[in-house]
Design goal:
100 residues; mainly alpha; elongated
């Protein structure tokens, strides 16, 4: 039974990584659609047409926040890799100034 789990583990890992990549795109679309639904609901309840655009703006803001959260998560992962001695190739070049 353990051998079967080990065989399936490498096959499932790329699928999970692909799903994580797709989740950002899906979450952006869902956030905008929910914002549009909120806007349509407000428009129907109040009868004010421009409330639809408030809902669209809320959805776009939520999508931008999702992108920012994903960026922050990836940046933290990059920082961990940068500090890992396996990927650090000796000394770091901190300054780009040419001193002649």
């Amino acid at each position: 039974m353990e051998e079967n789990q080990e065989e399936y583990k490498p096959r499932i890992k790329p699928i999970i990584e692909g799903a994580e990549s797709l989740s950002l795109g899906i979450s952006m679309v869902v956030a905008i659609l929910i914002g549009v639904a909120i806007g349509l609901g407000l428009k129907k309840v109040t009868g004010i047409a421009w409330l639809l655009w408030i809902g669209v703006a809320i959805g776009i803001a939520a999508a931008i926040m999702n992108v920012y959260k994903a960026y922050s998560k990836q940046y933290k992962e990059f920082e961990k890799l940068a500090k890992d001695p396996r990927y650090n190739m000796g000394k770091q070049v901190d300054d780009d100034d040419d001193e002649d």
